[in-house]
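User: For my dataset I need records formatted as: sequence, then structure tokens, nothing else. Please produce one.
Assistant:
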Amino acid sequence: MVRKRIIPTLLVSNGKLVKTKNFQHYKYVGDVVNAIKIFNEKEVDELILIDIEASKNSSSINYKLIENCATECFMPLCYGGGIKNIDDATRLFSLGIEKISLQSSIIENPIFLSELSSKFGNQAIVVSLDFRKDFFGNYRLINSSNGKVVKVDLSTFIRQIESLGGGEILLNSINKDGNMNGMDLEIIKKITSITNLPLIALGGVGSLKDIKDAFDVGASAVAAGSFFVFNGPYRAVLITYPNQIQINKLNSEL
């Protein structure tokens, strides 16, 4: 039995740890390095760190912060945000990052994915896809750097990612982001039916059952932010992670 991965996702804005709801309404929740220290103690599978301002504002990558995070992090760390060229990726890997996550640069120049994969291997490349469900129930791929709909055929684009060397897909539901009311199982099933690439599902986790539901419809891993940061009806900041007994039970049910 292959053990399923459960991955905390940390969002950074201007060097601070934040949480969002539907990609808006930023809420400061603490210091990112301190959060990583806590997740070390909880022996999490891996971490995803996303700088949500780096691509949006075309700002420079905060290498000092990433170095601090990578030095502190005892588990595999994936970083995304503002990666525009091979030099950016090379420097990130030199700091101890195991994987990089890309979105806007791949949407705008898919060949960049092939260049990265050829140099670093596809196991180190994660392609992040943000989806929004419109009024008519149609899924639209969104370029998070500008908030615009990407006019591509979904099946064609997914297969292009696979053929050009993408190693994993990080699938994020904008409608579900920060709501903790269950994942969008329909889009997870849709994407897994198109590709054999491992899929990390993100957005909407509010319980261990939500995580199991995503695994049941084909997700290779489940990532979450609010579920691991907020606690109780008043969403008090308290970093948590399933204990070993809970994880073993979850895996035995899959």
